[in-house]
Amino acid sequence: MSRRSLPLLRSLPFPTTDVAASLVVFLVAVPLCVGVAVASGVPAELGLVTGIVGGLVTGLLPGSSLQVSGPAAGLTVLVYEAVATYGLPALGVIVLAAGLLQLLMGVLRLGRLFRAISVSVVHGMLAGIGLVLVAGQLYALAGARAPGSGPANIAGLPGLAADTLESPRTLASLAVGAGTIAVLVLWRRLPAVVRTMPAPLAAVGLATAVTAVAGLPVAKVEVKGLLGVVDLPDSAGLAVLTGTGAMATVLAFTLIASAESLFSAAAVDRLHDGPRTDYDRELIAQGVGNTLCGLLGALPMTAVIVRSAANVQAGARTKVSRVLHGVWLLLFAALLPAALGVIPLAALAGVLVHAGTTLLPLSALVPLWRSHRGEVVVLVATAVGIVATNLFEGVLLGLGLAVLKTAWDTSAVHLEVSGEPDGPILVALAGNATFLRLPRILGTLESLPRDRPIALDLTGLRHLDHACRTALQDWAGRHHAQGVEPVHAPALH
């Protein structure tokens, strides 16, 4: 950079570090935008469209000043299923409806409620997405087509391995994808000077160069251009929303995109000392972005922690960096679309396999199991539910288990039995007596001698629910009927 240009940069109305940060985020975003689009079963350019909207539109709106929005690996599985079920023209309508729902939730100030979602459910959701994403992208890594659902993809992996070893073409594709993953894994161990280039860009760039030089017979990204992929919603697409299945998909898009964006905002807030996120405004910003993406027929957007962390670490100070990253994406998509056509699909699959593994909280499972085993059960059940069924049902399963676990934890009750050998028996209950604890309470009472008077002391209970009260009344009635002295339980009346 010349000395003449320095005064010009100093005169800018924003920190100059924002310009450098925007370039870093742009270089990180390009392979991820394209990779997520290809994995979702849509044209590669639609990923860039979502990234552009995330920068130029969502980036300008208030909420979180430093997190960056765009297409996310976390919604890849759901988008793929939606496109396979309802067709590509319906995707824009579904995203549009999800964006409007996000706007409504933001206006109603429901953004902060997402902070009450169990962390185990969120980690389980990400783990399930990661498993399904990795299982599906292993097929793309070998240049094959995935069977479809999560269980089918996992069940077909042994057959995929056998077919790969028999075909030189699939071996070449696998080598490109495996090499991409190796670069991503080893990149952090390289000298700092080398690591100035983002790892995803370096990995995809090296894979593209090797493929071109060696003339490897691997599939590459198909290019149509921005104008060729933008598809405005029509009446046929709107008719999709009359079905309950499509509305369930809209709800899943809304909840998962909102949760991922707001949890990302919380994580990004811990990375910098600037203004904290306004969750309701951020939800409105995400809603505006998804509404526009839906009108353009593009992928849904969320805030993406990978790009957001890169933005903060590159020295971004204001929202200018994320807006400029959208400008660079627009210029790239408009001026250099042919550059996408030389990228091997196996390299993008390698990027997404690596991204999928980062969603698995493997390092946190052992310490979590030692301290909170119930949370691990919720996490694993959510992940398995997503793999076995789908994203929406798996998350519902996780939320249900989290509620049950909370109810169990808060219904802790302490029973203490005392008394003289030949005198009345005193049973003191303390804590929260709910139906979840009835087996223990009734088991203790029914194990006591039937020919001695029993006094129940319920003064230590903070809560006695209807089911527990009724069961204790029934037990007291049975004890009275045996002819012994009445049970003293004033709290039952």
From TrEMBL:
Q: Which chain regions cross the lipid bilayer?
A: 20-39, 46-66, 86-108, 120-142, 170-187, 199-218, 238-257, 327-356, 376-404
State where the protein is found.
Answer: Membrane
Query: Could you tell me the keywords of this UniProt record?
Result: Membrane, Transmembrane, Transmembrane helix
**Main localization of the protein?**
membrane
| InterPro entries xrefs | SLC26A/SulP_dom, SLC26A/SulP_fam
Residues of the SLC26A/SulP transporter domain? 17-382
Q: What membrane topology is annotated for this entry?
A: Multi-pass membrane protein
Superkingdom per UniProt: Bacteria
- In Swiss-Prot or TrEMBL terms, this protein is called SulP family inorganic anion transporter
Organism expressing this protein natively = Kitasatospora paranensis
